[in-house]
Amino acid sequence: MTQTVKKIAVTGAAGQIAYSLLWRIANGDVYGKDTPIELQLLEIPVALGGAEGVAMELNDSAFPLLKNIVVTDKLEEAFDGTNAAFLVGAMPRGKGQERSDLLAANGKIFGPQGKAINDHAADDIRVLVVGNPANTNALIAMHAAKDVPNDRFNAMMRLDHNRALSQLGEKLGRDKNDINDLVVWGNHSATQFPDLTYATIGSDSVMDLIDHHWYVDEFIPRVAKRGAEIIEVRGKSSAASAASSAVDHMHDWINGTERWSTAAIPSDGSYGVPEGLLFGFPTVARGGEWQIVDGLELNDFQKKRIAANAAELADEKAAVADLL
Ligand code: NAD
Ligand code: LMR
User: Fold this and answer.
1) CATH number at residue 118
2) CA 130 to ligand 2 center in whole angstroms
3) Which residue minimizes the CA distance to atom 4 of ligand 2?
4) Are residue 163 and residue 312 in the same domain, yes or no?
5) What is the DSSP letter of 202?
6) Residues 97 and 168 in one domain
7) Which residues have a Cβ under 8 Å from the Cβ of 319 and sit 6 or more positions away?
8) pLDDT tens digits, residue range 90-120?
9) Does residue 260 sit in the same domain as residue 235?
10) Which ligand 2 atom minimizes the distance to the CA of 99?
11) DSSP class of residue 217?
12) Separation between Cα atoms, residue 222 and residue 156, nearest integer Å
């Protein structure tokens, strides 16, 4: 049977994340090894040459599944018939900055992109916002796409989730693949809450294996501030790990997963998070949709940290009220 070609848009195609992300997508890591794809690469005019060069290298890689590449600075071409969009193109932060400091510069990118997605993308469009501050940029894009169901807009917190799995596996000296039921609640910011309350490794409860001091004073801040740590050590913000996590997110959203993951999705009011905020929840994916893991009991420590994230995202929302 011939598979339909899927169109995948990537913004910021000349940037450092795209330089990893595009090779994973072209390899078939999002839709799978049976699905041919076309790439739609969006850049700003000044960086179009860079994106053209990236397209040349993609062609030189002779990926069997890659059927066509469009390079453009026009939103209507970039999102024409798009099935999956990675909104990466935005300024990264430098040393000493918080991601929310980027809101004034980056926020205005996402309204026009949301509107173009609304007007030109395919009915099954799924949008993953990576550009920072990702949760609030995704909120802006979602608001601009009035005819697209809200749940087709996600922000990336899978990198935070993967960081938490890796840090925990290393601490315990155990395989991170055996860790289940871990979540990073909230905002992709230093306030995020990597939560081990329900986590298991093999047949063990993680909470029985770690001490509270390490959890609160080392693990949570280490994961929450890992982006800044990478910038400090590498001199530039994370790129390949961000690309890899973006592929993990989109792959699981489309293909499904019963293993808990963290996706920042529009809140339905679960766990006291105001409706509509793009918030990292414990999720599984079924039938092409994320579902929030429900029925979890929250203790006071969890409630406080979840509320802090909701308050921070409400403040970011208020700061971009003119863009909504
Ligand atoms: P980069 O500066 O290397 O590349 C960004 C690219 O986006 C540039 O080529 C730029 O020309 C382009 N761009 C800017 N405005 C655009 C627009 N309106 N339309 C299309 N393209 C546009 O940056 P990077 O390292 O690739 O990071 C991109 C973004 O991703 C940053 O905001 C960064 O903070 C963020 N990020 C998020 C996560 C996450 O976990 N959510 C992780 C890593 C990085
Ligand atoms: C990350 O978490 O690595 C990215 O959001 C980049 C950053 O600014 O920290």
Assistant:
1) 3.40.50.720
2) 9
3) 227
4) yes
5) T
6) no
7) 103, 136
8) 988 888 888 888 888 888 999 999 999 999 9
9) yes
10) 8
11) I
12) 18
